[in-house]
Amino acid sequence: MTKWYEKQENDHEIVLSTRVRLARNVKEFPFVAHMSLEQKNKLIEQAWNAVSQANFGESMKFEKIEMDTLTREQALSLSERHLISPEFVEHKRGSALLLSGDESISIMCNEEDHLRIQVLKNGMDFDRAYELASQIDDLIDESLNYAFDEHLGFLTQCPTNLGTGLRVSVMLHLPMIEQSGLLSRLGNSLSKMGLTIRGTYGEGSKVKGSLYQISNQVTLGISERETISKLKEIVSSVITQERSLREQTKQNPHFIDVIQRALGTLSYAYLISGEEAAQLLSTARLGVSCNIIQEVTIHELNILANEIASATLQCAGYKDAEARDHARAQIIQKKLTHTKIVQ
Questions:
Q1: Other CB atoms within 10 A of residue 172 CB
Q2: So what's the pLDDT on residue 12?
Q3: Position 59 confidence tier, pLDDT thresholds 50, 70, 90
Q4: In this structure, are residues 191 and 259 in contact, taking their beta carbons and an 8 Å threshold?
Q5: Sorting pLDDT into bands at 50, 70 and 90, what band is 57?
Q6: Pick from 243, 263, 290: which residue ends a domain?
Q7: How many angstroms separate the CA atoms of 208 and 210, rounded?
């Protein structure tokens, strides 16, 4: 089945994806930290019964994945694809993932909260992502009684999620803002507006290939629509800044040289590590957006990045690092066979 990131819709040279996540807890149960294994399993079954009977079409049919049935590599692969949090990789008994066929919807059961409902969309697509998350949320709410307070809103284990329980984030490719030394200033500006900028896999994670997440921090005293509207406005401003810096630099001979060297390595290297691939693909992505590299699209590079992730390659049978690095190089070269440089 075609995955959400393989669909050619809302392609964007800077925004890779939009994510909407809702934190929910069920009134019947204590918070996750105080639940028994029996209670955790009961909650999973209730959530599964709610979503498995929904009719959202073939691509939205769910499967239930018990975390204790997965190898570590399989769990890490889910995290690499942003379907579960890095912390959820370590969750075993009493934890489950409810995943739609196209992987656009994932529901973590018994992570920090009872339910973490997440929707992923290509490019900048706040409205459709939120609409779908709300549909799933309403569907589950019909079967489970959410913990809700008239004054505080949705009750969550961590006070920072109280209120709407909503986290909206976008994944942006910001190599020029990064290289221009403007990230610190951007971070300070975002903080003053109730937003934050984080690494590729969220809070506390490293940045890979100049990919950053910008998301809201405030969930109390602000509506869902206000949160989305504010994020739209700020992200649009960041996009404008990144585009302006690219425009100023794209004719620079040293800039063109860096892009051509990156493409050369990607096209001919025998071994490419995951970290090196992330940086080289970041440069190639920049080259495509500046029309220096042709015959490959940003969309194809985004799909490629998922195909060559380390845990995904391990799941495909490449167990040692050298085998993975060689397989990664071969996959990249096959994808870039017809690319050419604009002179």
A1: 22
A2: 87
A3: low
A4: no
A5: low
A6: 243
A7: 6
